[in-house]
Amino acid sequence: MISPSSSSGSEGEEEMQMTPLQKHVAFFDRNNDGIIYPSETYRGFRAIGSGVALSAVSALFINGFLSPKTSPGKFPSPLLPIYVKNIHKGKHGSDSGVYDSEGRFVASKFEEIFQKHAKTNPNALTSKELMEMLRANRDPKDYSGWLASWTEWKVFYMLCKDKDGLLQKETVRAVYDGNIFLKMEAERKSSKKKA
Ligand code: HEM
Ligand SMILES: [Ca+2]
């Protein structure tokens, strides 16, 4: 579906053609059909170790916000599907600009985060530096964008900071291609086995 031009189309090939933003959300498309229902967002959050409350609230808000923006038809569906192929339409203001308008990864913008804000440690952000970045990214009066960015980055920080309270550069890199979610799921599975 994502690559209508590929005729032989194995799943691997399709994945190669996804934009980084599509990969960021594809983790939550638990059955890989190109659509993310709220139940899938919920299960994705649970799979990376979030609790019932955060997972349920996130599913409701993320699907409520992104379903109308990414749906192909004129009328939004009450089932709140998110269409992976249109996920770039879900971009909001006051973001870092690391994803461009098509959902591609802009390396210079990624480097800029650390050049500008990683003052204590060149390869990581403290909680205070993260807040400074969020403030610097704010477009004037873009209140919904402020809230969206704040939520994304705060949840990210909460789930992925290291033992010293730092958000490592490689961790931030991995959120942009979605690999962080695969890693968290794998770690959670292996720690469950040990317990
Ligand atoms: C624990 C789960 C998640 C975390 C920690 C997370 C974190 C992030 C972060 C840090 C960004 C970068 C924002 C920026 O560059 O300023 C981002 C962007 C984005 N995320 Fe997520 N995300 C999560 C789940 C999801 C889900 C489930 C969806 C939708 C199905 C989603 C859709 C998006 C979109 C559309 C953007 C682009 C926003 C923009 O650039 O304007 N994310 N996310
Ligand atoms: Ca699905």
Mean pLDDT across all residues, rounded? 93
Under CATH at level 1, the class of the largest domain stands as: Mainly Alpha
Instruction: Let me know the largest β-sheet.
Output: 2 strands, antiparallel
Number of domains: 2
Strand order of the largest sheet: 1-2
Quickly count the helices.
9
Number of strands: 4
**Rg:** 17 Å
- The helix fraction, in percent, is 40-55%
Topology as H/E string?
A: HHEHHEHEHHEHH
Distance between the termini: 40 Å
* Distinct bound molecules: protoporphyrin IX containing FE, calcium ion
As residue ranges, the low-confidence spans are 1-10
By secondary-structure content and strand pairing, the structural class works out as mainly alpha
Task: Describe, in plain words, how this protein is organized in 3D.
The protein folds into two domains: 8-90, Recoverin, domain 1, CATH 1.10.238; 94-195, Orthogonal Bundle (Recoverin, domain 1), CATH 1.10.238. The protein has nine helices and four strands, in the order ααβααβαβααβαα. Residues 1-10 have low confidence and may be disordered. The longest helix has 19 residues, at 52-70. With 195 residues, it is mostly helical. The structure holds protoporphyrin IX containing FE and calcium ion. Residues 29-31, 33, 35-36, 40 line the site of calcium ion (CA).
Topology:
Layout: H1 11-16, H2 20-26, E1 35-36, H3 38-47, H4 52-70, E2 82-83, H5 107-117, E3 124-125, H6 127-137, H7 143-160, E4 167-168, H8 169-176, H9 179-194
Antiparallel strand pairs: 1-2, 3-4
Helix pairs in contact: 3-4, 6-7
The protein binds protoporphyrin IX containing FE (HEM) and calcium ion.
InterPro entries: Caleosin-related, EF-hand-dom_pair
Protein name: EF-hand domain-containing protein
GO molecular function: calcium ion binding; monooxygenase activity
